[in-house]
Amino acid sequence: MFNASHVILYSADAEADRAFIRDVLQFAGVDAGGGWLIFKLPPSEIAVHPTDGPSKHEFYLMCDDIGKTMAQLTANGVTVSEPVNQRWGLLASVTLPSGADLPIYQPLHPTAFDLEG
């Protein structure tokens, strides 16, 4: 039924964050017209969590080795928070040029992104 997902990050400095995603995170992309870049993401998965507050959406980038990922990002001048050990994974965040945080984590749970079908 579906063949992909489309994630939107709203940014106070979209141009700088797009350049960061293209040049630092090295995601391939296309220009949808007028400089509106759309980037190819790694395989993804979706989870639905209960909440006592209002419904919301979050976006995380996953990695196999958060220490190695953080070292590579830091070597490229990226500000990365110290990882925190959560029950479900090792969590850190990258500071985008706009000042927004982009969470990254190394899952310690079974993943679904590589399932067939």
Automatic annotation (TrEMBL):
The keyword Endoplasmic reticulum does not apply. Residues 3-107 form the VOC domain. One of its GO terms (molecular function) is dioxygenase activity. Gene3D superfamilies: 2,3-Dihydroxybiphenyl 1,2-Dioxygenase, domain 1 (3.10.180.10). Transmembrane segments: none annotated. InterPro entries: Glyas_Bleomycin-R_OHBP_Dase (IPR029068), VOC_core (IPR037523). This is Extradiol dioxygenase. It comes from Paenibacillus lycopersici.
